[in-house]
C-alpha cells in the first residue's frame, strides 16, 4: 500500500509539473508571440511587430515572472532561452506564409493537385513536430532555471488565471 501512495504522489506531482510547464509555455509564448501580456495584441503577423526584439521578449518574461520573486540572473537566463527559441521558431512562421501560395496553387488549378496537398500536409506536420520539440526543450531549460517553489507558484498563478476565465 505504501508503494501505491508514493506512486500516486509521484503521478500527482508529475501532473502538476506538466501543468506548470504548459502554463509557463502559455505565459511566455503569448507575450513573445504577440498574444497578450504586457504588449496587448500584436507580435508577429499583421497587427504589430514583425520581429520581436529581445527587449519585447524580456518584457514578456518579466511580466510572466513578476509574482515569483525571480532574480535578475534568472530573468536574464530565461530571456536568453526564450529569445533563442523565438528566433528558431520565426523561420517556421515565415515558411507557413510561403505555403499559402502553394496551397492556393494546389487548389486553384483546373484540377486539385492531391500530391501537392499531401506534400504540404506532411511538411506542416513535420514542422509542427519540430516546433513542439523546440518548445518542450525550451520549457525544460526554463523550468531548470527556476526553483521548485517558483515553479509551484507559477502553477498556482496559472490555476487562478484559468479559474477567472473559465466562464468566458
Q: How would you summarize what this structure contains?
A:
The chain is mainly α and 168 residues long. It contains five helices and no strands.
Strand content: under 5%
Note the main sheet: none
Radius of gyration: 19 Å
The number of distinct β-strands equals 0
Overall pLDDT level: 76
From the helix content, strand content and strand pairing, which structural class follows? mainly alpha
Please give the share of residues in helix.
over 70%
> Alpha-carbon distance between the termini?
42 Å
Which runs of at least 5 residues are low in confidence (pLDDT < 50)? Answer: 1-5, 12-50
General shape: elongated
- Count of DSSP-assigned helices: 5
Q: What's the order of the H and E elements? A: HHHHH
Estimate nothing, just give the exact number of structural domains: 1
Describe the protein's architecture and organization.
This protein has helices spanning 2-33, 54-65, 72-108, 114-145, 148-164. It has 168 residues and is mainly α. Helix 1 (2-33) packs across helix 4, helix 1 crosses helix 5 (148-164) and helix 2 crosses helix 3 (72-108). The chain is built from 5 helices and no strands. Helices cover 77% and strands 0% of the residues. The longest helix is centred in the middle third of the chain and has 37 residues, at 72-108. Residues 1-5 and 12-50 have low confidence and may be disordered. It has one domain (2-164).
Amino acid at each position: 500500500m505504501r508503494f501505491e501512495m508514493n506512486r500516486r504522489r509521484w503521478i500527482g506531482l508529475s501532473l502538476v509539473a506538466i501543468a506548470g510547464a504548459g502554463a509557463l509555455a502559455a505565459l511566455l509564448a503569448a507575450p513573445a508571440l504577440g498574444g497578450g501580456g504586457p504588449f496587448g495584441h500584436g507580435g508577429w503577423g499583421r497587427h504589430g511587430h514583425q520581429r520581436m526584439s529581445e527587449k519585447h521578449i524580456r518584457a514578456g518574461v518579466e511580466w510572466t515572472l513578476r509574482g515569483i520573486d525571480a532574480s535578475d540572473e534568472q530573468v536574464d537566463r530565461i530571456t536568453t532561452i526564450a529569445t533563442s527559441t523565438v528566433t528558431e521558431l520565426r523561420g517556421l512562421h515565415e515558411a507557413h506564409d510561403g505555403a499559402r501560395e502553394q496551397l492556393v496553387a494546389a487548389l486553384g488549378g483546373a484540377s486539385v493537385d492531391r500530391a501537392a496537398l499531401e506534400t504540404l500536409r506532411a511538411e506542416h506536420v513535420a514542422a509542427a513536430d519540430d516546433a513542439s520539440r523546440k518548445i518542450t526543450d525550451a520549457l525544460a531549460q526554463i523550468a531548470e532555471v527556476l526553483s521548485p517553489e517558483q515553479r509551484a507558484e507559477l502553477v498556482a498563478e496559472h490555476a487562478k488565471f484559468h479559474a477567472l476565465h473559465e466562464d468566458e
